[in-house]
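Model: Ready when you are.
Researcher: Fold this.
Model:
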Amino acid sequence: MNQSPAPIDLTLLSTSYAVSVAVLEDLRARRRAGAHDAELIDLLTQHDRGGLDRERARALVAELPAR
Protein backbone atom coordinates (compact mmCIF):
# COMPACT_ATOMS: atom_id res chain seq x y z
CA MET A 1 0.00 0.00 0.00
CA ASN A 2 1.39 3.38 -1.04
CA GLN A 3 1.09 5.99 1.73
CA SER A 4 2.74 8.86 -0.15
CA PRO A 5 0.68 12.04 -0.45
CA ALA A 6 -1.13 12.79 -3.70
CA PRO A 7 0.55 15.40 -5.90
CA ILE A 8 -0.75 18.93 -5.39
CA ASP A 9 -2.68 20.36 -8.33
CA LEU A 10 -1.60 23.95 -8.80
CA THR A 11 -4.37 24.70 -11.31
CA LEU A 12 -6.68 26.26 -8.72
CA LEU A 13 -3.97 28.67 -7.54
CA SER A 14 -3.05 29.39 -11.15
CA THR A 15 -6.64 30.30 -11.96
CA SER A 16 -7.21 32.30 -8.77
CA TYR A 17 -4.14 34.48 -9.22
CA ALA A 18 -3.82 34.44 -13.04
CA VAL A 19 -0.28 33.05 -12.81
CA SER A 20 0.83 30.16 -14.99
CA VAL A 21 1.22 26.69 -13.53
CA ALA A 22 4.81 26.67 -14.79
CA VAL A 23 5.63 29.72 -12.66
CA LEU A 24 3.98 28.12 -9.63
CA GLU A 25 5.92 24.89 -10.15
CA ASP A 26 9.14 26.92 -10.33
CA LEU A 27 8.28 28.77 -7.12
CA ARG A 28 7.47 25.51 -5.34
CA ALA A 29 10.82 24.05 -6.46
CA ARG A 30 12.63 27.17 -5.25
CA ARG A 31 10.86 26.91 -1.88
CA ARG A 32 11.93 23.26 -1.56
CA ALA A 33 15.49 24.35 -2.34
CA GLY A 34 15.40 26.84 0.54
CA ALA A 35 14.19 30.11 -0.97
CA HIS A 36 12.63 32.52 1.50
CA ASP A 37 9.12 33.85 1.06
CA ALA A 38 10.46 37.35 0.35
CA GLU A 39 12.37 36.03 -2.68
CA LEU A 40 9.27 34.26 -4.00
CA ILE A 41 7.18 37.41 -3.51
CA ASP A 42 9.76 39.48 -5.40
CA LEU A 43 9.67 37.01 -8.29
CA LEU A 44 5.87 37.17 -8.48
CA THR A 45 5.95 40.96 -8.79
CA GLN A 46 8.07 40.71 -11.97
CA HIS A 47 6.01 41.07 -15.15
CA ASP A 48 7.26 37.82 -16.66
CA ARG A 49 6.41 35.92 -13.44
CA GLY A 50 2.87 37.14 -12.89
CA GLY A 51 3.16 40.89 -12.38
CA LEU A 52 1.23 40.74 -9.13
CA ASP A 53 1.18 43.58 -6.65
CA ARG A 54 3.03 42.77 -3.42
CA GLU A 55 -0.12 42.04 -1.42
CA ARG A 56 -1.47 39.48 -3.93
CA ALA A 57 2.01 37.98 -4.30
CA ARG A 58 2.22 37.63 -0.51
CA ALA A 59 -1.21 35.94 -0.41
CA LEU A 60 -0.24 33.50 -3.18
CA VAL A 61 3.01 32.56 -1.45
CA ALA A 62 1.07 31.92 1.76
CA GLU A 63 -1.12 29.43 -0.14
CA LEU A 64 1.70 27.81 -2.13
CA PRO A 65 2.28 24.25 -0.97
CA ALA A 66 5.80 23.31 0.05
CA ARG A 67 5.56 19.85 -1.51
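Researcher: Now this one.
Model:
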Amino acid sequence: MHDERPVTIPASVRPVPGLPVDDLLASSHELARQWALALIAQLPLERIDEVPLDDLARGAPALCAQTLRALTSDADLSRLTGESTDTRGGPAPALELARISGADGPAGVTRAVEALRGVLWGALTIEMAGAHGRDLADTCDRLAHVCSCALEAVLRSRTRPAAASGDPASGPAPVEDTRGETRVVSTPLAAGVQIIDEHSEERAAEVPVAPPGGSGEDGLEIEIRDQRSRPGPSAWIDTIARRLEVFSRDSRPFSVLLVEPMDPAVLRGSQEPGAAAELCDELETALAGELSAAGQPHWATRVLTRESPGRWWVLSAEPDRAGADALAARLERAACEVLDGRGRPLQVAVGTAVCPDDGCEPPALAAHADIGLFAARSSARAAGRRAAATVDDIG
Protein backbone atom coordinates (compact mmCIF):
# COMPACT_ATOMS: atom_id res chain seq x y z
CA MET A 1 0.00 0.00 0.00
CA HIS A 2 1.40 3.36 -1.05
CA ASP A 3 1.96 6.03 1.57
CA GLU A 4 0.07 9.06 0.22
CA ARG A 5 0.66 11.33 3.17
CA PRO A 6 1.85 14.81 2.13
CA VAL A 7 5.58 15.31 2.15
CA THR A 8 6.68 17.25 5.22
CA ILE A 9 9.26 19.91 4.51
CA PRO A 10 11.93 19.95 7.22
CA ALA A 11 11.91 23.10 9.30
CA SER A 12 15.46 23.87 8.20
CA VAL A 13 14.39 24.45 4.59
CA ARG A 14 11.30 26.49 5.34
CA PRO A 15 11.40 30.21 4.50
CA VAL A 16 13.51 32.44 6.77
CA PRO A 17 11.37 35.61 6.82
CA GLY A 18 13.74 37.71 8.91
CA LEU A 19 16.77 37.42 6.64
CA PRO A 20 18.54 40.77 6.05
CA VAL A 21 18.42 40.61 2.26
CA ASP A 22 17.42 44.21 1.45
CA ASP A 23 21.00 45.43 1.04
CA LEU A 24 21.87 42.37 -1.02
CA LEU A 25 18.87 42.98 -3.29
CA ALA A 26 20.23 46.47 -3.91
CA SER A 27 23.58 44.87 -4.85
CA SER A 28 22.15 42.37 -7.33
CA HIS A 29 24.35 43.70 -10.14
CA GLU A 30 27.49 43.11 -8.06
CA LEU A 31 26.29 39.61 -7.19
CA ALA A 32 25.68 38.97 -10.89
CA ARG A 33 29.22 40.13 -11.65
CA GLN A 34 30.63 37.75 -9.04
CA TRP A 35 28.57 34.91 -10.50
CA ALA A 36 29.96 35.68 -13.97
CA LEU A 37 33.49 35.51 -12.55
CA ALA A 38 32.69 32.18 -10.90
CA LEU A 39 31.33 30.78 -14.17
CA ILE A 40 34.43 31.83 -16.07
CA ALA A 41 36.74 30.42 -13.41
CA GLN A 42 35.23 26.97 -14.01
CA LEU A 43 36.36 26.86 -17.64
CA PRO A 44 39.74 26.21 -19.23
CA LEU A 45 41.40 29.21 -20.85
CA GLU A 46 40.40 28.38 -24.39
CA ARG A 47 36.69 28.18 -23.48
CA ILE A 48 36.09 31.27 -21.35
CA ASP A 49 34.53 33.10 -24.28
CA GLU A 50 31.65 30.60 -24.07
CA VAL A 51 30.19 32.53 -21.13
CA PRO A 52 27.61 34.91 -22.70
CA LEU A 53 28.44 38.06 -20.76
CA ASP A 54 25.89 40.15 -22.65
CA ASP A 55 23.07 37.79 -21.63
CA LEU A 56 24.42 37.68 -18.07
CA ALA A 57 24.51 41.45 -17.83
CA ARG A 58 20.83 41.58 -18.79
CA GLY A 59 19.43 38.58 -16.91
CA ALA A 60 21.66 37.67 -13.99
CA PRO A 61 20.76 40.56 -11.63
CA ALA A 62 17.07 39.55 -11.72
CA LEU A 63 17.96 35.90 -11.14
CA CYS A 64 20.16 36.75 -8.15
CA ALA A 65 17.49 39.02 -6.67
CA GLN A 66 14.67 36.49 -7.07
CA THR A 67 16.81 33.72 -5.57
CA LEU A 68 17.41 35.91 -2.52
CA ARG A 69 13.69 36.67 -2.22
CA ALA A 70 12.97 32.94 -2.40
CA LEU A 71 14.92 32.47 0.83
CA THR A 72 12.25 34.40 2.69
CA SER A 73 9.05 33.30 0.92
CA ASP A 74 7.66 30.18 -0.73
CA ALA A 75 5.62 32.41 -3.02
CA ASP A 76 8.85 33.95 -4.29
CA LEU A 77 10.34 30.47 -4.65
CA SER A 78 7.39 29.59 -6.91
CA ARG A 79 8.04 32.73 -8.96
CA LEU A 80 11.71 31.77 -9.24
CA THR A 81 10.97 28.28 -10.59
CA GLY A 82 7.91 29.12 -12.70
CA GLU A 83 5.43 27.19 -10.58
CA SER A 84 3.58 30.44 -9.91
CA THR A 85 1.60 32.09 -12.69
CA ASP A 86 2.80 35.46 -11.38
CA THR A 87 6.01 35.91 -13.37
CA ARG A 88 5.97 39.70 -12.99
CA GLY A 89 5.99 40.37 -16.71
CA GLY A 90 8.56 37.84 -17.90
CA PRO A 91 9.72 34.23 -17.82
CA ALA A 92 10.62 32.62 -14.50
CA PRO A 93 14.22 33.63 -13.69
CA ALA A 94 15.34 30.05 -13.03
CA LEU A 95 14.18 28.96 -16.49
CA GLU A 96 16.53 31.57 -17.97
CA LEU A 97 19.52 30.24 -16.03
CA ALA A 98 20.88 27.89 -18.69
CA ARG A 99 20.64 30.48 -21.44
CA ILE A 100 22.21 33.41 -19.60
CA SER A 101 25.00 31.29 -18.11
CA GLY A 102 25.81 29.44 -21.33
CA ALA A 103 25.46 26.13 -19.46
CA ASP A 104 25.40 23.11 -21.77
CA GLY A 105 23.77 19.89 -20.54
CA PRO A 106 22.80 18.77 -17.02
CA ALA A 107 26.38 18.86 -15.74
CA GLY A 108 26.89 22.41 -16.98
CA VAL A 109 23.60 23.57 -15.47
CA THR A 110 24.50 21.93 -12.16
CA ARG A 111 27.86 23.72 -12.10
CA ALA A 112 26.18 27.03 -12.89
CA VAL A 113 23.66 26.61 -10.06
CA GLU A 114 26.41 25.62 -7.65
CA ALA A 115 28.44 28.68 -8.64
CA LEU A 116 25.38 30.85 -7.96
CA ARG A 117 24.84 29.19 -4.58
CA GLY A 118 28.46 29.81 -3.65
CA VAL A 119 28.29 33.50 -4.55
CA LEU A 120 25.03 34.08 -2.66
CA TRP A 121 26.21 32.14 0.39
CA GLY A 122 29.41 34.18 0.51
CA ALA A 123 27.40 37.41 0.43
CA LEU A 124 24.95 36.15 3.05
CA THR A 125 27.69 35.16 5.49
CA ILE A 126 29.10 38.69 5.29
CA GLU A 127 25.67 40.23 5.77
CA MET A 128 24.95 37.90 8.72
CA ALA A 129 28.36 38.19 10.36
CA GLY A 130 26.86 38.61 13.83
CA ALA A 131 24.07 36.06 13.46
CA HIS A 132 23.51 33.08 15.76
CA GLY A 133 24.87 29.76 14.52
CA ARG A 134 21.37 28.28 14.26
CA ASP A 135 20.23 31.13 12.02
CA LEU A 136 23.24 30.63 9.77
CA ALA A 137 22.55 26.89 9.54
CA ASP A 138 18.87 27.47 8.67
CA THR A 139 19.85 30.02 6.03
CA CYS A 140 22.40 27.65 4.54
CA ASP A 141 19.85 24.84 4.34
CA ARG A 142 17.20 27.12 2.83
CA LEU A 143 19.65 28.38 0.19
CA ALA A 144 20.56 24.81 -0.74
CA HIS A 145 16.86 23.95 -0.99
CA VAL A 146 16.10 26.98 -3.18
CA CYS A 147 19.01 26.20 -5.48
CA SER A 148 17.99 22.55 -5.76
CA CYS A 149 14.45 23.64 -6.70
CA ALA A 150 15.88 25.99 -9.32
CA LEU A 151 18.09 23.22 -10.70
CA GLU A 152 15.12 20.83 -10.88
CA ALA A 153 13.06 23.47 -12.71
CA VAL A 154 15.80 24.09 -15.27
CA LEU A 155 16.40 20.39 -15.94
CA ARG A 156 12.68 19.68 -16.16
CA SER A 157 12.19 22.50 -18.67
CA ARG A 158 15.04 21.21 -20.83
CA THR A 159 13.51 17.73 -21.09
CA ARG A 160 10.23 19.03 -22.54
CA PRO A 161 9.65 18.71 -26.30
CA ALA A 162 11.74 21.15 -28.27
CA ALA A 163 10.12 24.56 -28.35
CA ALA A 164 10.10 27.04 -31.18
CA SER A 165 13.33 28.78 -31.99
CA GLY A 166 14.13 31.40 -29.39
CA ASP A 167 12.29 29.71 -26.52
CA PRO A 168 14.60 29.76 -23.49
CA ALA A 169 13.45 26.24 -22.57
CA SER A 170 14.98 24.87 -25.74
CA GLY A 171 18.44 25.79 -24.50
CA PRO A 172 20.99 28.09 -26.04
CA ALA A 173 20.98 28.28 -29.81
CA PRO A 174 24.17 27.56 -31.70
CA VAL A 175 26.22 30.68 -32.26
CA GLU A 176 28.25 31.04 -35.41
CA ASP A 177 31.84 32.02 -34.70
CA THR A 178 32.27 35.23 -36.67
CA ARG A 179 35.51 36.35 -35.11
CA GLY A 180 38.14 37.52 -37.53
CA GLU A 181 41.87 37.44 -37.32
CA THR A 182 43.79 37.97 -34.10
CA ARG A 183 46.45 40.58 -34.15
CA VAL A 184 48.95 41.47 -31.43
CA VAL A 185 50.50 44.86 -30.93
CA SER A 186 53.25 45.11 -28.35
CA THR A 187 54.64 48.48 -27.35
CA PRO A 188 58.01 48.37 -25.56
CA LEU A 189 59.23 51.77 -24.36
CA ALA A 190 62.35 51.68 -26.53
CA ALA A 191 61.27 49.45 -29.39
CA GLY A 192 57.91 51.00 -30.33
CA VAL A 193 54.87 49.18 -31.66
CA GLN A 194 54.75 45.70 -33.17
CA ILE A 195 51.66 44.31 -34.91
CA ILE A 196 51.56 40.55 -35.45
CA ASP A 197 48.89 39.10 -37.73
CA GLU A 198 48.34 35.56 -36.45
CA HIS A 199 46.20 34.28 -39.30
CA SER A 200 47.76 35.84 -42.35
CA GLU A 201 47.62 33.52 -45.37
CA GLU A 202 51.14 34.40 -46.31
CA ARG A 203 53.99 36.14 -44.59
CA ALA A 204 53.54 39.87 -44.93
CA ALA A 205 56.37 42.23 -45.64
CA GLU A 206 57.70 44.08 -42.61
CA VAL A 207 56.48 47.63 -43.02
CA PRO A 208 57.54 50.32 -40.51
CA VAL A 209 54.75 52.82 -39.84
CA ALA A 210 55.03 55.86 -37.61
CA PRO A 211 52.18 56.15 -35.10
CA PRO A 212 50.08 59.34 -34.92
CA GLY A 213 52.20 62.25 -33.76
CA GLY A 214 55.47 60.35 -34.13
CA SER A 215 58.19 60.55 -36.74
CA GLY A 216 59.20 56.93 -36.56
CA GLU A 217 62.78 58.01 -35.83
CA ASP A 218 62.89 56.71 -32.25
CA GLY A 219 62.10 53.07 -32.98
CA LEU A 220 58.33 53.65 -32.94
CA GLU A 221 57.51 51.18 -35.68
CA ILE A 222 54.78 48.69 -36.53
CA GLU A 223 56.13 45.34 -37.62
CA ILE A 224 53.76 42.80 -39.24
CA ARG A 225 54.62 39.11 -39.02
CA ASP A 226 52.92 35.79 -39.66
CA GLN A 227 52.46 33.81 -36.41
CA ARG A 228 50.21 31.00 -37.68
CA SER A 229 52.39 28.29 -36.13
CA ARG A 230 51.93 29.41 -32.54
CA PRO A 231 49.74 26.78 -30.78
CA GLY A 232 47.58 27.08 -27.68
CA PRO A 233 44.86 29.50 -26.63
CA SER A 234 44.00 32.64 -28.53
CA ALA A 235 46.61 35.36 -28.51
CA TRP A 236 44.96 37.69 -26.04
CA ILE A 237 44.56 35.11 -23.28
CA ASP A 238 48.04 33.77 -24.01
CA THR A 239 49.41 37.30 -23.63
CA ILE A 240 47.79 37.68 -20.20
CA ALA A 241 49.11 34.27 -19.16
CA ARG A 242 52.67 35.23 -20.15
CA ARG A 243 52.47 38.48 -18.20
CA LEU A 244 51.22 36.54 -15.17
CA GLU A 245 54.29 34.33 -15.42
CA VAL A 246 56.41 37.48 -15.13
CA PHE A 247 54.23 38.66 -12.22
CA SER A 248 54.93 35.41 -10.39
CA ARG A 249 58.61 36.37 -10.46
CA ASP A 250 58.63 40.15 -10.00
CA SER A 251 55.27 40.74 -8.16
CA ARG A 252 54.78 43.99 -10.09
CA PRO A 253 51.08 44.84 -10.52
CA PHE A 254 49.72 45.46 -14.00
CA SER A 255 46.46 46.31 -15.71
CA VAL A 256 44.29 44.65 -18.34
CA LEU A 257 41.97 46.82 -20.42
CA LEU A 258 39.32 45.81 -22.96
CA VAL A 259 38.34 48.30 -25.68
CA GLU A 260 35.31 48.23 -28.00
CA PRO A 261 33.38 50.90 -29.89
CA MET A 262 30.44 52.20 -27.90
CA ASP A 263 28.29 51.14 -30.85
CA PRO A 264 29.88 47.96 -32.33
CA ALA A 265 27.67 48.31 -35.42
CA VAL A 266 29.91 51.09 -36.74
CA LEU A 267 32.54 48.46 -37.59
CA ARG A 268 30.10 46.12 -39.29
CA GLY A 269 28.69 46.13 -42.80
CA SER A 270 26.66 49.33 -42.60
CA GLN A 271 29.21 51.17 -44.74
CA GLU A 272 30.76 50.87 -48.18
CA PRO A 273 32.56 47.56 -48.87
CA GLY A 274 35.94 47.60 -47.15
CA ALA A 275 35.20 50.79 -45.21
CA ALA A 276 34.55 48.90 -41.96
CA ALA A 277 37.94 47.17 -42.15
CA GLU A 278 39.66 50.49 -42.90
CA LEU A 279 37.91 52.11 -39.96
CA CYS A 280 38.94 49.22 -37.70
CA ASP A 281 42.57 49.61 -38.78
CA GLU A 282 42.40 53.37 -38.27
CA LEU A 283 41.07 52.94 -34.77
CA GLU A 284 43.74 50.35 -33.99
CA THR A 285 46.43 52.76 -35.18
CA ALA A 286 45.02 55.51 -32.96
CA LEU A 287 45.03 53.21 -29.93
CA ALA A 288 48.58 52.05 -30.69
CA GLY A 289 49.69 55.65 -31.07
CA GLU A 290 48.31 56.59 -27.67
CA LEU A 291 49.96 53.58 -26.07
CA SER A 292 53.27 54.57 -27.66
CA ALA A 293 52.97 58.14 -26.45
CA ALA A 294 52.14 57.29 -22.83
CA GLY A 295 55.16 56.79 -20.60
CA GLN A 296 56.00 53.42 -19.05
CA PRO A 297 58.66 52.25 -16.58
CA HIS A 298 61.90 51.18 -18.24
CA TRP A 299 61.15 47.51 -17.52
CA ALA A 300 57.59 47.54 -18.86
CA THR A 301 56.09 46.40 -22.14
CA ARG A 302 52.68 47.58 -23.26
CA VAL A 303 50.69 45.10 -25.37
CA LEU A 304 47.66 45.69 -27.60
CA THR A 305 45.91 42.56 -28.93
CA ARG A 306 43.09 42.50 -31.46
CA GLU A 307 40.86 39.59 -30.47
CA SER A 308 38.48 40.26 -33.35
CA PRO A 309 37.59 43.27 -35.50
CA GLY A 310 36.47 46.00 -33.10
CA ARG A 311 37.67 44.31 -29.89
CA TRP A 312 41.10 44.97 -28.38
CA TRP A 313 42.88 43.90 -25.18
CA VAL A 314 45.58 46.08 -23.60
CA LEU A 315 48.22 45.05 -21.06
CA SER A 316 49.99 47.89 -19.30
CA ALA A 317 52.10 48.56 -16.21
CA GLU A 318 49.52 50.76 -14.46
CA PRO A 319 49.63 49.28 -10.93
CA ASP A 320 46.21 50.32 -9.63
CA ARG A 321 42.65 51.23 -10.55
CA ALA A 322 43.39 54.96 -10.79
CA GLY A 323 46.18 54.36 -13.29
CA ALA A 324 44.10 51.94 -15.35
CA ASP A 325 41.18 54.38 -15.43
CA ALA A 326 43.49 57.21 -16.48
CA LEU A 327 44.84 55.12 -19.36
CA ALA A 328 41.28 54.18 -20.32
CA ALA A 329 40.38 57.88 -20.50
CA ARG A 330 43.38 58.56 -22.76
CA LEU A 331 42.36 55.71 -25.08
CA GLU A 332 38.82 57.10 -25.22
CA ARG A 333 40.17 60.52 -26.22
CA ALA A 334 42.47 58.97 -28.84
CA ALA A 335 39.52 57.09 -30.37
CA CYS A 336 37.59 60.35 -30.73
CA GLU A 337 40.23 61.50 -33.23
CA VAL A 338 38.87 58.84 -35.60
CA LEU A 339 35.66 59.65 -37.50
CA ASP A 340 33.04 57.02 -38.19
CA GLY A 341 31.20 56.51 -41.47
CA ARG A 342 28.96 59.50 -40.74
CA GLY A 343 31.80 61.84 -39.87
CA ARG A 344 31.25 61.67 -36.10
CA PRO A 345 34.01 61.08 -33.50
CA LEU A 346 34.31 57.36 -32.77
CA GLN A 347 33.46 56.65 -29.15
CA VAL A 348 34.78 53.58 -27.34
CA ALA A 349 33.95 51.85 -24.06
CA VAL A 350 36.80 50.54 -21.92
CA GLY A 351 36.68 47.92 -19.16
CA THR A 352 39.58 47.57 -16.73
CA ALA A 353 41.06 44.95 -14.40
CA VAL A 354 44.12 45.11 -12.16
CA CYS A 355 46.40 42.28 -11.11
CA PRO A 356 46.54 41.21 -8.31
CA ASP A 357 43.49 43.13 -6.98
CA ASP A 358 41.07 41.47 -9.42
CA GLY A 359 42.80 38.10 -9.58
CA CYS A 360 45.97 36.33 -10.63
CA GLU A 361 44.51 34.04 -13.28
CA PRO A 362 43.74 34.94 -16.93
CA PRO A 363 40.01 34.06 -16.68
CA ALA A 364 39.50 36.26 -13.61
CA LEU A 365 41.26 39.28 -15.12
CA ALA A 366 39.54 38.82 -18.48
CA ALA A 367 36.15 38.54 -16.78
CA HIS A 368 36.65 41.68 -14.69
CA ALA A 369 37.65 43.66 -17.78
CA ASP A 370 34.79 42.24 -19.88
CA ILE A 371 32.18 42.96 -17.24
CA GLY A 372 33.69 46.41 -16.73
CA LEU A 373 33.24 47.01 -20.46
CA PHE A 374 29.52 46.23 -20.23
CA ALA A 375 29.23 48.49 -17.19
CA ALA A 376 31.01 51.35 -18.98
CA ARG A 377 28.79 50.99 -22.04
CA SER A 378 25.62 50.79 -19.91
CA SER A 379 26.66 53.81 -17.85
CA ALA A 380 27.36 55.88 -20.96
CA ARG A 381 24.02 54.95 -22.51
CA ALA A 382 22.19 55.78 -19.28
CA ALA A 383 23.94 59.15 -19.17
CA GLY A 384 22.87 59.77 -22.77
CA ARG A 385 19.26 58.95 -21.95
CA ARG A 386 19.34 61.30 -18.95
CA ALA A 387 20.81 64.08 -21.08
CA ALA A 388 18.14 63.56 -23.74
CA ALA A 389 15.39 63.63 -21.10
CA THR A 390 16.81 66.87 -19.70
CA VAL A 391 16.76 68.46 -23.14
CA ASP A 392 13.15 67.33 -23.62
CA ASP A 393 12.19 68.80 -20.23
CA ILE A 394 13.81 72.12 -21.10
CA GLY A 395 12.08 72.13 -24.48
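Researcher: Key takeaway?
Model: The two ends are 77 Å apart (CA to CA).
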